[in-house]
Design a protein that fits this description.
This protein has 269 residues and is an all-alpha fold. It contains ten helices and two strands. Helix 1 runs parallel beside helix 8, helix 2 crosses helix 3 and helix 5 crosses helix 8.
Length: 269
């Protein structure tokens, strides 16, 4: 039930609090790091089960996995989507690679894409079954949020943590312009496919009863926790790049978070 506090609600909030705390206080133990890495996609899975139903959730997440992995594969081997780059082959950094792409990257896509999608629905006030122009509007806003998210961490992920390397650098703190247009287009594609799927195969009962502000706030909280983590870790760093990421997390990614928060507060009255 989306309007009642259940055991599932408590489990999701425990996950969110652990994610928020470990975003701030970084865990050094390798085993715990792996477990913590899985928490955001697990939260997204549980939240989506309650929002869209299990069948729809599995289809939606499969769409995200297939499109994102295909985009990463083409990106690594052609450079035509995100620009020329390669993933660090060290198992300690990215785990194992399949054709140059770490499969674990798809788990990050799931949590980022799902929470951005819910955030877009909240911002636009499109919480139920989509139709007409909302099929496109939710996809566009969702893709913009995922791109903003990437703008807060890509230079840090590549040049500080060495998760991947850009061959020729780029205009955005060493990251090419094409990377962000690629993120937007990739996200737009899987959000459009998801919306068309839900419009064609989901039923009105999949969205009833209407989700409460508390339930929707869980997804908004996860986006906010990640933004705050960037602000906390980068704002007082000595380099301009790291400080810039904190500013973007505050004023760029922070904008849809604040809008969604006030909408939910107003909705709860």
């Amino acid at each position: 039930m989306l309007n009642k506090i259940t055991t599932s609600t408590y489990i999701r909030w425990v996950l969110l609090l652990v994610i928020a705390v470990t975003d701030i206080y970084v865990v050094k133990n390798p085993t715990l790091q792996v477990l913590i890495f899985f928490l955001p996609p697990i939260f997204a899975l549980l939240h989506s089960f309650n929002y869209f139903g299990k069948k729809n959730t599995l289809v939606m997440f499969l769409i995200i996995i297939v499109v994102s992995f295909a985009a990463e594969y083409l990106g690594v081997h052609t450079g035509k989507i995100f620009g020329l780059y390669y993933y660090n082959p060290s198992p300690k950094v990215n785990g194992f690679l399949i054709s140059g792409v770490p499969p674990l990257i798809t788990l990050s896509y799931i949590s980022i894409a799902y929470t951005s999608y819910v955030l877009a629905r909240v911002v636009l006030g499109k919480l139920g079954r989509l139709s007409g122009i909302s099929l496109a509007s939710v996809a566009i806003v969702g893709a913009m949020v995922t791109t903003l998210w990437d703008m807060t961490f890509d230079p840090i992920a590549s040049y500080v943590h060495n998760i991947y390397t850009w061959y020729a650098g780029g205009a955005y703190f060493g990251v090419p312009f094409r990377n962000f247009t690629g993120w937007f287009l990739e996200s737009l594609v899987f959000f459009l496919i998801i919306n068309v799927y839900l419009f064609s195969f989901s039923k009105n009962k999949d969205y009833s009863p209407k989700p409460s502000s508390l339930f929707l706030g869980e997804a908004v909280f996860l986006v906010a926790a990640n933004a705050f983590s960037t602000i906390y870790h980068e704002f007082f760093r000595p380099t301009e790049v790291q400080q810039a990421m904190a500013l973007i997390a505050i004023f760029a990614l922070g904008t849809p978070i604040v809008i969604a928060t006030f909408k939910l507060l107003d909705k709860s009255k």
